[in-house]
Write a sequence for this structure.
C-alpha cells in the first residue's frame, strides 16, 4: 500500500526539480508573489523566476529609496523630524500637509531661517505627483507577479523576461511612446492646475505673504467670502452676467458677419474674390494686441480722432469719453464688441468659405429645379451644412470669448470704474478681474477661487454643447 501511494504521489527530489522560469514553488498561491512585490518591488517576479522583470521593477524601487536618502539627513541615532531630516518625498509631503511650521522673523542681521509655505506647497505637489507615477509601476509589479503565478498554477507555460518585454513592446508600443508625453503633461499642466486649486483653500494674500509669513489651510472660507459677503457677491454676479452677455454677443456677431461675407464672396457675381478675401483677412493677420491699442487711441476721449470727428460734424456737443465715463458704461461695452467683431469675423469668413467650396453644385441645381429661391437655398442647404461643420468651433469661439483677456484689458483696462464693484470696472470679464485680483491686488486666494469658478462654468457649457453636437457624436 505504501508502494502504491508512493507511485501515485511521487515527491520530486530537490536536485531533479525543474529549473525553467516560473517553476519555483509549484502550487504557490498567487498572493505570495503579489505580497512580496508589494513589500519589495520585483521580489514577486524573483519568486516567479523572472530575474529580468525583477530587476526592472526593483530599479524604480531602489531609485526612489536612494533619492530619498540622498536628499535627506538620515543619520543613525539622530532624533528624526520630517522638517529637518526628511528627504525629497518625506519632507515634500510634510510641507504639503503643514505648509511649514517655522515662520521667519526680522532680527538685527535680517530675516531668520524659516519655511516658505508656497515653496513647500510646490515641492510637495512635485513629490506627490512623482509618487503617483511610481505608484502606477508599483501596482503594475504587484498585479504582474500575482497574475503570472495564477496563470502558472492554471497550466500556462513559463515565459522568460525577455519574451515578456518583447511581447509588451509589440502590444503596447503606442502607450510606451506616449508615456514621456504623459509625464510632461503631469508636471507641465496638471501640476499648475493642482497648485491653483490648493491656493483656493489657503489664506495666501497680500496680508499674509511668504516668506515672512506662513500660509495656512482655511478650508472653504474663501468660497464663503466670494458667495456670502455682499460686496464680493455683487461684484461676482455683475461681472458674470456681463461675461456671459459678452461671450454670446461676441460669438454670434463674429460668426454672422463671417458667414455673410463668405456667402457673398462665394457668389459668382463678385469679381476678384481672392483679392477681397485677402483684404478681409488683414484684421486677423495683425496681432490683436496691436489692433486693440490702435482702437484705444482712436477712441481716446481726450485726444482721439473719433470723438473730435463727432464734434466736428455736429453729432455731439462735446467729446465722448468712451472708456472712462462711469455714467455710460455701455459705450465702452459697445466699442469693445465692435473691436472684437473687427478682429473675429475673418476667422469665420475663412472657415465658412472653405465649407462652402466643398458643397456640391448639384444640391443647389436640384433646389432651383424644385423652385427654391436664393433665400430658401441659403436656409435649407447652406446653413445646415455649414452649421454641422462649424458648430464645435463656434463653441470653442464662445469659450475663447468668455476668457478674451486681450481685447478687454488692452482696449478698456476694464473701465469705466464702477463704485459698486471690488477691484473691477464695468467692462471687466471674469478673467480680467482675476488678473487684477492676483497681480494688481495680490489676493491670490480669491483669484484661485475665481479660476475654479471660471473652469467649472466654461467646462460645463462646453461639455453640454459638445455632447449635443452631431459632429462630435459621430467622431
Amino acid at each position: 500500500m505504501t508502494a502504491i501511494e508512493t507511485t501515485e504521489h511521487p515527491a520530486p527530489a530537490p536536485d531533479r526539480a525543474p529549473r525553467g522560469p516560473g517553476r519555483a514553488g509549484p502550487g504557490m498561491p498567487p498572493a505570495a508573489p503579489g505580497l512580496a512585490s508589494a513589500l519589495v518591488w520585483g521580489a514577486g517576479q524573483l519568486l516567479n523566476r523572472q530575474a529580468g522583470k525583477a530587476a526592472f521593477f526593483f530599479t524604480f524601487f531602489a531609485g526612489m529609496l536612494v533619492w530619498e536618502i540622498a536628499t535627506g539627513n538620515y543619520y543613525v541615532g539622530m532624533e528624526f523630524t520630517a522638517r529637518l531630516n526628511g528627504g525629497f518625498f518625506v519632507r515634500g509631503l510634510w510641507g504639503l500637509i503643514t505648509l511649514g511650521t517655522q515662520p521667519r522673523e526680522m532680527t538685527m542681521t535680517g530675516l531668520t531661517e524659516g519655511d516658505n509655505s508656497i515653496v513647500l506647497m510646490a515641492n510637495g505637489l512635485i513629490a506627490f505627483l512623482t509618487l503617483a507615477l511610481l505608484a502606477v509601476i508599483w501596482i503594475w509589479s504587484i498585479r504582474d507577479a500575482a497574475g503570472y503565478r495564477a496563470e502558472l498554477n492554471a497550466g500556462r507555460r513559463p515565459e522568460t523576461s525577455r519574451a515578456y518585454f518583447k511581447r509588451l513592446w509589440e502590444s503596447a508600443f503606442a502607450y510606451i511612446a506616449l508615456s514621456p508625453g504623459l509625464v510632461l503633461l503631469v508636471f507641465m499642466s496638471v501640476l499648475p492646475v493642482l497648485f491653483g486649486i490648493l491656493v483656493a483653500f489657503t489664506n495666501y494674500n497680500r496680508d499674509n505673504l511668504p516668506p515672512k509669513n506662513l500660509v495656512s489651510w482655511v478650508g472653504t472660507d474663501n468660497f464663503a467670502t466670494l458667495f456670502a459677503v455682499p460686496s464680493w457677491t455683487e461684484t461676482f454676479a455683475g461681472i458674470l452676467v456681463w461675461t456671459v452677455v459678452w461671450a454670446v454677443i461676441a460669438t454670434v456677431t463674429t460668426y454672422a458677419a463671417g458667414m455673410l461675407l463668405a456667402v457673398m464672396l462665394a457668389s459668382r457675381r463678385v469679381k476678384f474674390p481672392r483679392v477681397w478675401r485677402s483684404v478681409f483677412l488683414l484684421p486677423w493677420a495683425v496681432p490683436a494686441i496691436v489692433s486693440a491699442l490702435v482702437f484705444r487711441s482712436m477712441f481716446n476721449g481726450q485726444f482721439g480722432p473719433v470723438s473730435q470727428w463727432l464734434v466736428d460734424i455736429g453729432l455731439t456737443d462735446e467729446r465722448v469719453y468712451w472708456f472712462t465715463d462711469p455714467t455710460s458704461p455701455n459705450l465702452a461695452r459697445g466699442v469693445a464688441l465692435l473691436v472684437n467683431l473687427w478682429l473675429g469675423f475673418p476667422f469665420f469668413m475663412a472657415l465658412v468659405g472653405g465649407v462652402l467650396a466643398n458643397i456640391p453644385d448639384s444640391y443647389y441645381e436640384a433646389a432651383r429645379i424644385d423652385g427654391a429661391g436664393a433665400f430658401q437655398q441659403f436656409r435649407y442647404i447652406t446653413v445646415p451644412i455649414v452649421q454641422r461643420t462649424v458648430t464645435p468651433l463656434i463653441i470653442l469661439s464662445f469659450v475663447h470669448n468668455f476668457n478674451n483677456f486681450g481685447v478687454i484689458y488692452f482696449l478698456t483696462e476694464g473701465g469705466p470704474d464702477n463704485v459698486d464693484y471690488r477691484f473691477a470696472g464695468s467692462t471687466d470679464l471674469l478673467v480680467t478681474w482675476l488678473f487684477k485680483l492676483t497681480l494688481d491686488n495680490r489676493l491670490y486666494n480669491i483669484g484661485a477661487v475665481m479660476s475654479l469658478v471660471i473652469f467649472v462654468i466654461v467646462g460645463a457649457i462646453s461639455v453640454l454643447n459638445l455632447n449635443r453636437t452631431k459632429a462630435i457624436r459621430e467622431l
About this structure: Residues 1-25 have pLDDT under 50 and may be disordered. The CA atoms of residues 27 and 153 lie 6 Å apart. The domain at 225-473 is CATH 1.10.3720.10 (MetI-like fold).
